[in-house]
Amino acid sequence: MIRFFIIILSSLLIFSQGRAQSDQWPVPEDEAERLSPFAFNDSTREAGQELYDLNCASCHGDPGEGNYANLDPLPADPVSPTIQNNSDGALYHKITEGRGQMPAFQNVLTPEERWFVVSYLRSYNDGYVQEVAKEVIKKGYKGLIRIMMDYDAGQNRMISKITGIQDNEEEPISNARVRLTAKRYFGDLTLDGEKETDSIGMVAFTIPEDLPGDSTGNVHFRIALTEQELYGSAKKDTVLKAGSPVMAPPLNKERAMWNTVWKAPVWLLISYLGAVLLIWGTIFFIILQIREIFLIGKRKES
User: Which InterPro entries match (predicted)?
Assistant: First the structure.
């Protein structure tokens, strides 16, 4: 009996420890130290509230009301220490990347809109004092951005050099945040996180060896500067044979709900045709009965 209780207690401890570890959400140090390029004010908070209500409230609920969705793990209330103890950069990173049941908003919200959401969340922290990024970071680049990509097959890395051309002079774009993504069916897959260019505008990303490609191993890559407020929509696409070949059948090969009529599931065709025949059969039966009543009336009159 004692051994049974020891096993139960050990299981509970392991579960609670695993649950505690799963609740932790580590953020890279450089991301946690990231600052908003603009000061938060009433207009940014109002814009953030609209975005929160549209994208976040369905899970996190109304701030301070505790009406968040019944999920596992439970979404945090915006006023709780779970959220407010994060730095601005950590909140921005989590909104951008997502994790588990929380979706990533990097392809849904612009960088500016993500900072609006952070601004709204901070409105529920009375002791919050904002630290804004330096003015030099806020200054946008007015020249032309050139992105060059080179694939190192030996080390399975994507190397990129980013330069700017202004007044007919070329200069490296340093300390710029860059993201490498691979195109998937339902969105873009971020590879090796978000990185910064070095002093000569270089940045390198490691590509997973098991990255799925098409039937020949080709992958559609995109390198983009993520700080659109500084560099605009600067990006470059290329297709390289850097993935594992995948012989996936076409989406319309098998019978499925989304396929053409004659490729629909057999049970669905039978159900549909059966329902149509039943409905029209009932209609014709009613018409025949009405005709029969009419004929009976005629015979009685004669």
Answer: Cyt_c-like_dom, Cyt_c-like_dom_sf, Cytochrome_c-type_DH
